[in-house]
């Protein structure tokens, strides 16, 4: 399972939102100055209004309208999940506040979409009413298309200040002020990606259980999925609240269904989260075969942690897969990597599918030559 085959909602909706922000910033900085690289929802609305009501009329690329439509559709889907969470949460003040900001952001995006549609309609009417050679009235559509293509460059671009004193910027640095409501949506899409991966691996182990694929194939797919999870968690951590990411993994460890972690994330520190890890597992999953498997390998993992260093792929001839490496980090630093929480949920799935003792060898530290034998 390669990263390219995984359809990430988080990546898609982040790209849709960022494409809109970059385009609004690039065009709108002509009308509104100065602009910083952190924009609020109000800034987006102001920029959209200036651009869409400009004279001469600006030809807005259809791709931008599609991006806004997709962004709205994703956020509307997310809002349905928030509604169900609000009904099930007893202490839901934080979630309710975040949801209100999110709903406000949806309304703003819909207003921006309306601005864009009205501007495109006005341009069409004007073009039909006047001769095409009256080009002084309009922005050349080809020039607008060139702008859009330049915004899609991976490396981003910078501009020097012109006589009007516009600031230099690199469009890779542009971001939305998460206090205005985008953070909860990012969190939702991130968790949806984790659930999608979990479901994919669950189906793989179901095929193994039905003897449709080999054990080696199932474990390779699982290890690949674990790598994707780690990369996604690392990327999410870079753009999220430090206190939340410190607690998120631990809170998910204490709930197999999650994400019921909002009250924990608001009033707990990372050290407090780590201190409750053992108690959470003992209280929730003491009889679960995966919890028993963790106990069974605890001594071996502790021995590896003493001998190894963070980031080792193998310690003393023992191969460290993604999850074992996370356990070693926990033993060394008393920190649970957030990715380990999602990986643990996947382990719980196929431990249940394989049934108790049949799943225990999956967590046993294995020497490198055993891994090589399996792959032959």
Automatic annotation (TrEMBL):
Pfam families: DUF6604
InterPro entries attached to this UniProt entry: DUF6604
Domain DUF6604: residue ranges: 11-236
Protein origin, superkingdom: Eukaryota
Protein's name according to its UniProt entry: DUF6604 domain-containing protein
Lineage: Eukaryota, Fungi, Dikarya, Ascomycota, Pezizomycotina
């Amino acid at each position: 399972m390669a990263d390219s085959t995984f359809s990430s909602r988080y990546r898609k909706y982040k790209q849709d939102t960022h494409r809109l922000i970059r385009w609004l910033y690039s065009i709108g900085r002509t009308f509104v100055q100065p602009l910083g690289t952190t924009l609020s929802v109000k800034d987006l609305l102001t920029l959209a209004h200036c651009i869409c009501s400009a004279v001469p009329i600006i030809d807005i690329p259809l791709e931008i309208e599609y991006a806004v439509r997709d962004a709205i559709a994703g956020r509307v889907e997310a809002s349905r999940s928030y509604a169900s969470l609000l009904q099930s949460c007893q202490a839901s003040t934080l979630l309710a506040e975040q949801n209100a900001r999110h709903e406000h952001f949806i309304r703003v995006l819909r207003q921006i979409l309306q601005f864009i549609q009205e501007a495109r309609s006005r341009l069409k009417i004007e073009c039909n009413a006047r001769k095409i050679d009256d080009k002084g009235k309009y922005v050349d559509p080809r020039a607008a298309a060139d702008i859009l293509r330049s915004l899609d460059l991976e490396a981003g671009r910078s501009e020097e200040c012109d006589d009007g004193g516009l600031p230099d910027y690199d469009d890779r640095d542009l971001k939305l002020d998460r206090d205005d409501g985008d953070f909860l949506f990012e969190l939702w899409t991130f968790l949806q990606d984790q659930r999608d991966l979990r479901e994919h691996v669950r189906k793989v182990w179901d095929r193994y259980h039905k003897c449709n694929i080999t054990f080696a194939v199932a474990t390779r797919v699982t290890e690949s999925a674990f790598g994707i999870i780690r990369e996604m968690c690392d990327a999410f951590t870079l753009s999220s609240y430090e206190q939340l990411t410190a607690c998120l993994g631990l809170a998910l460890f204490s709930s197999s269904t999650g994400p019921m972690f909002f009250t924990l994330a608001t009033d707990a520190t990372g050290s407090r989260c780590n201190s409750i890890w053992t108690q959470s597992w003992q209280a929730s999953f003491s009889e679960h075969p995966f919890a028993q498997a963790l106990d069974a390998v605890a001594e071996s993992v502790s021995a590896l942690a003493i001998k190894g260093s963070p980031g080792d792929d193998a310690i003393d001839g023992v191969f460290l897969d993604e999850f074992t490496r996370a356990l070693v980090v926990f033993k060394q630093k008393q920190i649970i990597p957030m990715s380990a929480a999602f990986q643990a949920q996947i382990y719980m799935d196929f431990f249940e599918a394989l049934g108790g003792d049949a799943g225990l060898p999956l967590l046993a530290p294995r020497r490198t030559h055993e891994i090589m034998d399996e792959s032959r």
